[in-house]
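Hello forum,

I keep getting stuck at the same step: I have a sequence, I want structure tokens, and every attempt I make locally crashes halfway through. Rather than fight my setup again tonight, could one of you with a working pipeline run this one for me? It's a single chain of 347 residues.
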Amino acid sequence: MNDKTPLLPVHVISGFLGSGKTTLLKSVLASEEFGDSAVLINEFGDVGLDDRLLGEIAEDAVLLSSGCVCCTIRGELSDALRRLMSQRQDGKIPPFKRIILETTGLADPGPIASTITADPVLRHHLRPGTNLTLVDALNATASRKLQPVWESQIAVADKLVISKVDLVDQAQLDEVQSLIDAINPSAQQLGQEALTQASDELFSSGPHIDHYSYSEVKTWLGPWRKPPGPEAVNHLGDIQSFRLCFDGEVDWTCFGIWLSMLLNRHGSHIMRVKGVLHVKGDTRPVIIHGVQHTIHPPEHVDAWPQNDRISELIFITHGITAKCVTDSLKTFMNAVSNHPSPRISHA
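Reply #2:
Ran it on my machine without issues. Output:
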């Protein structure tokens, strides 16, 4: 399932203005740990590069003392990524190993994966990496009410950092945590120190890594903090998070057809899907990962642990219930598959 030449990950940093993106970017750009990175930002002036600037090395690109290449986004993202890869291939900039992308505050990070996987050039060189979302504890509730994209940024996150926790009381912090858990209870949360002490932990866990162990897959799936009660969920309108568990082997062909049909018909309402499957006839777990209409190539990982082959899928949806998804999959498998269907439950 993997190309011989490793694809470079494109990690995405999302968050509203004031959530801490600039602080995090300054930390990343100054860190030698990220010296083999290319960072795409909106404006050079926003992150104050003068004291670390070694010189301009290409159009809209500068080299920093940490070794990091910093570029500005001009025009379409696909054009910026193509230009960056061309400069890398031509030797105009150092051979970076990852791209870190800053989105604008009101951007939905979901379509970024589609930009990469649908582009006939980029998909042979790049892959979607980790989505990191920063949440402003002081303004989270107001941002959610005024900008629906706030929920999308939470939904696609692999990792989250809640900032400004020192500026709110415990009740307000609990409310923000409750909103996050209602939308994406499986996202890994990092402490505030992640903003100023950039480390590999920021982007270390994500899909599409062919040497994952099963324990690392479980870490990527997340801790699944128990979603809050109905009162908190009602505030989110139609957004739901749920986990499907499969007791038994999964017919890969049948499942693949069902998931493709689901995303083709309801992709705009499937904000996130990820999971691990015990596929019939395969001794290794298979990782599934998709954002909206885009489903990424599945990945095999190391063997299952003894006595633990439970498949599970995590969905974050808008306007589609867990019962609808579960009933649809059960009905399709019973009608189409030539093999006994696994028992499917949802939580």
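The chain has two domains: 8-202, 214-346. If your local run keeps crashing, start a new thread with the error log.
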